[in-house]
Model the fold of this input.
Amino acid sequence: MTVVDPAMVKRAVSAAALGNAMEWFDFGVYSYIAVTLGHVFFPSGNPTAQLLSTFGAFAAAFLVRPIGGMVFGPLGDRIGRQKILAITMIMMAAGTFAIGLIPSYASIGVGAPILLLVARLVQGFSTGGEYGGASTFIAEYAPDKKRGFLGSWLEFGTLAGYVGGAGLVTLMTALLSTDALNSWGWRIPFLIAGPMGIIGLYLRMRLEETPAFAQLEREARTKEKERREAEKRIGIREMIFGQWRSMLLCVGLVLVFNVTDYMLLSYMPSYLTSELKYDETHGLLVVLAVMVLMMGVQPLAGRLTDRFGRRPVIGAGCVGFLVLSVPALLLIRQGSLAAIALGMAALGLLLVTFTSAMPSTLPALFPTKVRYGSLSIGFNISVSLFGGTTPLVVTALIGATGNKMMPAYYMMAAAVIGGIAVLLMSESAGKPLPGSPPAVETEAEAQELREAARRPATAGSAA
Done:
């Protein structure tokens, strides 16, 4: 039985969410300025070809994420998760800062898109070590009855990063002319990421230096010594094939989570601009407002997963995307500000069912001895194959078919796969993680559980 210190857990959650916010600020900036990057790095007379090239570089970062997970996962077991999370944050900020320094295609020719691709690969490699470590860390130290609520703050950090990236790009778009934005303005959001990375690292290190957080880290090392000895004998084969059912469930859940996530938060700004010819600034403002709405609902939805369970919440999201994707996109295509806002808000609220539940659901799929490695591998494989490629695939489908409803059909297909995973998964809300003892928030709660465990034994003896 583990009695956690609530203040200690809050500090751990804050550090993990901060890192997530920093990393997804970097990704968000790239996503929201994709149309401009197409003009700068991939000159072509065809806007669709430009957008395809830009999202191709975006998707390339996700192809190296599994490699990052395989490298950083074992390192996190040896030298500490927080140290690895700090390293990944530095690499992400450095990669983003470097993008802001790359000359345009007009200046150096084909070298420009090559350098852009290298910077994106650095970003993708570093992100491979982030989510699995952060979600596992929070899940293992959260009390069983609050794991959903505390885990939801990890994706709150993601949304905060997206809001920061979208807000900055929107400001640049509103203040600068198209020529100025294409000439030098696009660099500003990327260059800001450098100082922000330093500030974020400083704040995280300050969190680690507090006595309570330092004690947590010492206890974590002590508890993980025996675990690491066992994990040394566990290879990649055991992490994947020894947990094949949980791995498939993880891939299915992450698929619906990330396809809908990247569709709404990364692809939709470009869809509104390039496919529907909607005003770029207005489109970004709508997406920004939707993300702020999601941030407000996120912790409440996390509490719902603790009260009613992860399966009902995720299942409701899958049904919602299956039924409402087409009506929502038809509203968006109607073109008025009110219709676009309503359609985007509907998709955003459905997405919250995933962002609030997944950080507590995914770690519970695996036992302690393989949790970090298996989750990192399954998560990054699914994100690489299905999540990060969503903008590229949907843009290509629209270009090939001319059907601008493809985003809705793609989300519906993902919802079917996610729904199957929900039907096959076990409920984990309010239960200890597999291979871990019960975790409670107070000594009184621990005493209640001990007494409850003794009652059946006492009754059996009396009989």
Q: What stands out?
A: DSSP finds 22 helices and two strands in the chain. The domain at 2-427 is CATH 1.20.1250.20 (Growth Hormone; Chain: A;). The first strand starts at residue 2 and ends at 3. Residues 41 and 110 are 8 Å apart (CA to CA).
